[in-house]
Amino acid sequence: MLFPDYRPRRLRRTRAFRRMIRETVLTVDDLILPLFAVSGKSIKNPIPSMPGHYQLSIDNLVKTAKEAFELGIPAVMLFGLPDRKDSLGTSAYAKDGIVQKAVKAVKNKLPDLMVITDVCLCQYTDHGHCGVIEHQMVDNDATLDLLARTALSHAHAGADMVAPSDMMDGRVAEIRNTLDENNLYNVPIMSYAAKYCSAYYGPFRQAADSAPQFGDRRTYQMDPANAVEAIREVTMDIEEGADIIMVKPALPYLDIICRIRQEIDLPVAAYNVSGEYAMIKAGEKMGWIDGRKVMLETLTSIKRAGADMILTYFAVETARILRERA
Ligand code: PBG
Ligand code: ZN
Hints:
CATH architecture: Alpha-Beta Barrel
CATH class: Alpha Beta
CATH superfamily: Aldolase class I
Mean pLDDT: 98
Largest sheet: 10 strands, mixed
Structural class: alpha/beta
Radius of gyration: 20 Å
Shape: globular
Order of helices and strands: HEEEHEHEEEHEHEHHEHEHHEH
Low-confidence stretches: none
Distance between the termini: 35 Å
Strand content: 15-25%
Bound molecules: ligand PBG, zinc ion
CATH topology: TIM Barrel
């Protein structure tokens, strides 16, 4: 196919041609909206580095969830900010914990909206790590049971799917066994399988008050330089019973999404994280980029790389635009 016999521009000439040959189409079905729950009433604390996002008390969280549902967004992902933190993160698996209560409230009002819960300890531990500390280290095996209890209590509260984000080895198997033993074999696990130790989580830690109080997460989250290891992590989680596997963050790891899509036959999720959101919002505010276009291009690139679904703080904005266009 050589010029002048072949002219790629022929099929770019009109909008109709471009629509017809478009390979990747973003739809509202692809979107999952993350939300932050706090206790109290009528609370809507703006998150400075994530304009348009708030820490929401359950009444307001249900309102936002309803708005998302009415726009056709199929699922929300819940994060909790507990009233009390301690060394074992006990509020994470308390029956009346913030996420447990939020799940109940959302499912009660919006039974057809899928509720996914983030399963981790970092928002609930006073040291801010994703597991329990023994000898100044995050102890893997001592953490597993607490994660499984957290997932179980979310499922008991009515969560449609649980999503462990801690990166402890063996947690998917532990959670799967615990759910199965409790007859919750229908609750799938979306595993944050290839989760990198990323500076792009900065705004989230402000939103969720979950920054580690000492050290960092390098002993459990993946080194950003590694790709082959991601395949190993993902394979392991699948063998342990994961139903959906996630790559996180998304944009700096499109190569990982692409490789995993090619090598793995399960649905792949990508998390377009807080820092990715904040950069676009900041660039837009400065007047340096067209935020709306950059948002749509970014989400399309994540889907083109191979993601079947995208967790994104842009979910509502994107759903609105897709609706306008429909
Ligand atoms: C907790 C968790 C984090 C995110 C999701 N779950 C932060 C972290 O690992 O420190 C990040 C999400 C985002 O940045 O949007 N384990
Ligand atoms: Zn964590």
